[in-house]
Design brief:
This protein has 3 helices and 14 strands. The protein has 174 residues and is an alpha+beta fold. It folds into 2 domains: 114 residues, NusG, N-terminal domain (Alpha-Beta Plaits); 55 residues, SH3 type barrels (Roll).
């Protein structure tokens, strides 16, 4: 038998608790040779609040945890009876392992992909510039470029509406 990745379903919000409980159970029951890695899939999400950049960990699959293990009756029992686990993902009572490409994609998404901005800005919204050469100006958002973390804002200069490109961190919501 070779080790494969399986998905277990947990109570929502208990993913990290399940991971900790399962790690303790593996150690106390001597299952280190059958159950290897436990992963709560998360990715970084960048949020700009009051002009400050914050990186939050966001669960990619809330309510699910990945377990790398060799499936046997005793390893299944240890995982299945961990507090917070509601079951394995699969058809009927038979857990179905993830495909290697799926696992690579999830792990890549967790570690090697750039943090995604959480966009709270909308076209037409008014913002105040809090950093840079346009400090103190107020303008309306003309375009949101979430992939680049930038906004195009129309500010009034010399009696004319002028489009200015600004980072999320240079503005605050009004």
């Amino acid at each position: 038998m070779e080790k494969q990745w399986y998905v277990i379903h947990t109570y929502s919000g208990y993913e990290n608790k399940v991971k900790a409980n399962l790690e303790k159970r593996i150690e106390s029951m001597g299952m280190e040779d059958k159950i290897f890695r436990i992963v709560v899939p998360v990715e970084d999400e960048v949020e700009f609040k009051d002009g400050k950049k914050r990186i939050n960990k966001r669960k990619v699959f809330p309510g699910y945890v990945l377990v790398e293990m060799i499936m046997s009756d005793d390893s299944w029992y240890v995982v299945r009876n961990t507090p917070g686990v509601t079951g394995f993902v699969g058809s009927g009572s038979k857990p179905i392992p993830l495909q290697p490409a799926e696992v690579r994609s999830i792990l890549r998404r967790m570690g090697m992909e750039e943090a995604r901005p959480k966009v709270t800005y909308e076209v037409g919204q008014s913002v105040r510039v809090i950093h840079g050469p346009f400090l103190g100006f107020i303008g309306g958002i003309q375009e949101v470029m979430a992939d680049r973390g930038k906004l195009r804002v129309l500010v009034s200069m010399f009696g004319r509406e002028t489009p200015v490109e600004l980072d999320f961190s240079q503005v605050e919501e009004l």
